[in-house]
Hints:
Elements: H1 2-5, E1 15-20, E2 29-34, H2 37-47, E3 52-57, E4 75-86, E5 92-108, E6 118-123, H3 136-149, H4 161-168, H5 175-186, H6 190-198, H7 202-224
Parallel strand pairs: 1-3
Antiparallel strand pairs: 1-6, 2-5, 3-4, 4-5, 5-6
Helix pairs in contact: 3-4, 3-7, 5-7
Amino acid sequence: MDGAQSVRVNFGRPVALFPLDAVLLPQQPMPLHIFEPRYRQMVDNELDAAGQIAIATLDPSLPRTEAGEPGIRPIVCVGQIVTHERLPDGRFHIILHGLCRARVVKEIPAGGGTLYRRAVLEPFGNESGELEDNTGTMERLRSWVDDALDAGGALSRLRIAEQVLEYVRNDAIPTPVLLDVVGFTMVMGRENRYRMLSEPSPEARTRMLADELRKLASTIRAAEGQHPEDWPKGMSWN
């Protein structure tokens, strides 16, 4: 995670766009199987360049572009290719690590030999590592998540609980980084995750995350009343 923080995005050049029915958050690792020719070209080109790709969330409610491409939501996450495997037939397995939020300023359609979409991006949101007002909200969130994930807490049933606790109890981790780490591990659903991505304020994201974790804890407590010891073999809290 610390190494990824030192990587910078050059917003002075167009960035490759990879539209998906998914959301990438900063700090999140996303494994991808690249098989379409246009995206194979995209990865090939980026491996010889900055190695950065913006994951854009598809939105079928938006009109298609002039080139007939499906619409995308305006806030994207720029990711860094951290590992890749080139298969004999030209496909790739890659892992993309989320770097930062960005806003699409202008899209550059495929053309001129480039098969994939690109966009001019601008930085989006407060990624400085500090809350705008004070740290009180973040301290309350750390305390609440600590209690919820610790032994006996509702969220302690989750396999990821112990790992998330390590981050929550590490005061050296900047607030926006911690928010995104907890966010991509604990917040489910594309819409909820896009809300986390498209909210520029760490203070507001803190409140959103607290609300989502309370809902998750409430769901788990309700499920506890359904006698999980009687669930079919193989079912779990996760």
